[in-house]
Amino acid sequence: MPYTTPAEIRRRKTGQEPNERPALVRDEATVVDYEHDFAFLPLFKALFGLIILNFAVSLLVTGTPLWGESTKWTNQRYLAHVSRTIFRPLPEFSDAELALYDGEAIHEAAVANSPYKILIALNGTVFDVSGSPETYGPGGPYHGFAGRDAARAFVTGCFSNPAEYTHDMRGLDPTLAQETVTGWTRFFDTNHKYWRVGTVVHEPLELDEDINPPPEPCSNGRGQKPGFRDEYILRKKKKMVIKNKLFE
Question: How far is CA 24 from CA 16, 21, 27, in A?
Fold first, then answer.
């Protein structure tokens, strides 16, 4: 029987020639793999370049990065507001504190260190309207809303009656009042010049009509309950009768 060397025995078991090496298994990605993974980079760079070019041309032509389109996020005052309040709750104002933000010169010193100059409130929500001093500042058509919660006037539209600039909603139709307040709230939330800055905590409202009667109804006011004006006039006449009897 011919002699078989140990190397020959190993060759027969493995099926490999003596000089052959076991095939290597590559776990790492090949150069081709890397090139495939990063094939999107040129496209990404091109898109990014187009965006930057669009901003640059818009700034050159319109002076704004979005072709004249104004949003809260293009408003430097709003960005400053977000940076101040992003990690802290919005403040609460009392009626007296809110009254300081009416844009009047007499209150300038009191709010000199505040980022807000003119505030309005709508059913408890305070909005910064400092971006429209010509509208809500002294001499503006809606200055009566500044420094107070005049939700009632928003509902009735009776801007010529000072008593309407209040949050007292007595005598108004609840459904119509809520719809109107919701509509105006949406307006201020979506306008790029205005934004929420807090809430106002009102003093408890005296509901006894003998002590604190509701505002006198407007002749052409919106949202008033049917018959509210007649009820108000009748109630006023009864008070006059009682008053006259007391002095007889």
Answer: 14, 9, 10
